[in-house]
Amino acid sequence: MLHNLGSKTYLLAVRPNALANTGTQTGSAIDLNDYEGDIAFVLDASAGGASVTYAVKLTESDTEGGSYTDVSGGAFTTTDANSALQEKIFVNSNDMKRYIKSSVTIAGGTGTGFVSVTGLAAKKYD
């Protein structure tokens, strides 16, 4: 649970701000072992270009290099064509597997926008 957003919250760069141009892109694995309770995930997506949409979701795995599956409740709203979107979702880390990644699927052409996902989390022993 996020008790103190000031001094007790840590930022998780699930997907650092990066160009989302074609296909499906996946972020690096984030280890949730040191965190507990709700994690707020914030999506910041800029307009991607005419007809371009971004479908962003969180995926999870028991091992860093394992097979990743969708996190229950971990999908953001798909952006409208050529529209920016900022959105926040909450997922409880106790309900997720140890490792998470972000997945961005670009549809409708070659994107020209940037997409980032940041998590705000509380450590177990802080």
What does this structure look like?
It is a single chain. By secondary structure, this protein is mostly beta strands. The chain has a single domain, classed as Jelly Rolls (Sandwich). The protein has no helices and 9 strands. The protein has strands at 10-20, 24-26, 30-31, 35-45, 53-61, 69-75, 85-92, 99-107, 113-123. Strands 2, 3, 5, 6 and 8 form a 5-stranded antiparallel β-sheet that branches. A hairpin with a 7-residue loop joins strand 5 (53-61) and strand 6. The two termini are 12 Å apart.
**What percent of the residues sit in helical stretches (DSSP H or I)?**
under 10%
Q: Which shape, going by the Cα principal axes?
A: globular
Supply the CATH architecture: Sandwich
**Number of separate helices:** 0
Helix and strand string, N-terminal first?
EEEEEEEEE
| Unreliable spans | none
C-alpha-based Rg, rounded: 15 Å
CATH class: Mainly Beta
Characterize the main sheet.
5 strands, antiparallel
Termini separation (Å)? 12 Å
Number of E strands: 9
| Strand coverage percent | over 45%
CATH topology: Jelly Rolls
Helices and strands: which structural class?
A: mainly beta
The total tally of domains equals: 1
Mean pLDDT across every amino acid position: 91
Lay out the secondary structure.
Elements (H helix, E strand, L loop, with lengths): L9 E11 L3 E3 L3 E2 L3 E11 L7 E9 L7 E7 L9 E8 L6 E9 L5 E11 L3
Antiparallel strand pairs: 1-9, 2-8, 3-8, 4-7, 4-9, 5-6, 5-8
Question: Which keywords apply here?
Answer:
five-stranded antiparallel β-sheet, 0% helix, four-stranded antiparallel β-sheet, Jelly Rolls, mainly beta, single chain, 9 strands, 126 residues, globular
